[in-house]
Amino acid sequence: MNNKRMEEAVGYQLSLTAHLIHNQHNRSLANRGLSRSLVRILYLLREDGPQSQTELQNKLRVQGSTMNGLIESLLKKNLIIKAESENDRRRKVIEITEAGREVESAVWKEMREMEEELTAGISEDQQQWLLETLKSMQQKLEQRKEQ
Which residues belong to any copy of the HTH marR-type domain (predicted)? Predict the structure, then answer.
């Protein structure tokens, strides 16, 4: 491997770009009293329907105590409800409310607008190549983690 300067390393540039994007998202979400984890829960509920707290916890890869706090925060904001499972009345499922759907939709609209701003002037082919390259790198990292 040659002696690249840090600014010329792909990993450094990816990390810096992700950091800047996360900061922008966090500022936008903070204005709504939300975090990325809370929005991710809303997304999972909208996308996959009602789920148990354990299912959500596994998808987010967080500890039970962390999940409890996230669920409580969304309940207080009336963005989700806990309901009895249709199949097992002892089991509680988490469902997104209409207010939760509206918030989730607005957040993703802002994120899409930011992505459009970031990719302005980049051709569709270049964007597709970048997406495929990033996914390939993610797969390699996942495989490496399993070793």
Answer: 7-143
Residues sharing a CB contact under 8 Å with residue 34, sequence separation 6 or more, in sequence order? 103, 107
Q: Where are the alpha helices (DSSP H) in the chain?
A: 10-30, 36-48, 53-60, 64-76, 98-119, 124-146
Q: What is the pLDDT of residue 92?
A: 86
10-146: in CATH 3.40.50.300: no
What's this model's pTM, rounded to 2 decimal places?
A: 0.76
Q: At CB < 8 A and 24+ separation, what contacts does 72-76 make?
A: 73/38, 74/38, 74/41, 74/42, 74/100
CA distances to 8, 11, 78, 89, 96 from 43, in Å: 35, 28, 15, 25, 9
Spatial contact of 26 and 36, defined as CB atoms under 8 Å apart: yes
Strand, helix or coil for residue 129 = helix
Amino acid, single-letter form, for residue 36: R
The candidate with the shortest Cα–Cα distance to 96, out of 111, 76, 75, is: 75
Mean local confidence (pLDDT), 69-84? 95
Helix axes 64-76, 53-60, angle to 10 degrees: 110
Whether the CB-CB separation of 73 and 38 falls below 8 Å is answered with yes
